[in-house]
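I'll show an entry:

:::
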Amino acid sequence: MAKRFTATEKWIDPWFCELSQSDKLFWLYLLDNCDHAGIWQVNWPLVKFHIKDYVFNKEVFKGRIVELKEQKWFMPKFIEFQYGRLRNNNSTHISVLKILEDNNLLNYAKGDGRLLLKDDKVDEKLRQEVFKECNGLCVYCGNVLSDEFEIDHITPTIKGGETKKNNLVSCCPECNRFKSDYSLEEFINRRGLSGDLINQRLKVFKKGLFSPYVGAKDKDKDKDKDKVKDKYLDFVLLTKDQHQDLINRFGPEGAEERIKVLNEYGHTKPKKFKEYGSHYHTILAWARNDKPEDNLTKAQRSNLQGLKRTMEEIKNDKRSVPEGVCGPDSSVPGITVQ
């Protein structure tokens, strides 16, 4: 059975939240039952077996489903989410490209006019040269690469980057998928990585031919020099504006909790902690992986905590109840709060 990525933030996505219960189930059914290129062979009897009396409303899914010939549907966003930008030198991507080609979808354009697919091919010789030049490391996270390494365009082709050696680096699949079509600076900020460390690797591996992050950083040097960072707890450094923004985003308690978590990370993994160039962007990057309950309002969080306390009291209640209702010790059964 194939395994796929799932977007946990869908549960707070406005479009998904407004769907009816049956439409939510149908959308999840589509994502699980399409092939690995995002194409679903229409099968209404099977749909109605799983979702009784379901009535499909085409308008609800407008822009998310493309109807093809031979009773097939295509979900363009599936590919971008699962793979990022498709590459001609990745075995999984080659299989996806073949399916898309067979269905005349190879050059399918998204709503913003970008081509979803078709990157310039990096031939095997150039691929190995780049891998050797980068010392077998992922230039972004610094991890040693396996045989499943990938090649990334530092400046994405969609933003004018060329398939030339000085614009190519070796990287791990995770970093490559996360970077997608972001510029290097956007990627570093979103990922919460150290721009200085990445640029040091680029200087060594690319012999100073490419250093966009430092260029962007130096450009704003005068602007940033007056921004003094205050220390929070033992390690976390934030400007007053950054600290206030965290409070605005997460509330005073939420901001304090996130600072505590990052500070604790500094204690337990000091070497890794030093790689995080911006503590502010690290907190934001980690926040994207929060559980849905972390995004509740203060009042909703308070209600949820109250409910959990009540559940805990019920769980610990040892009062006697009629025989046969509970377990052999006549106690109220425990309740697990998910």
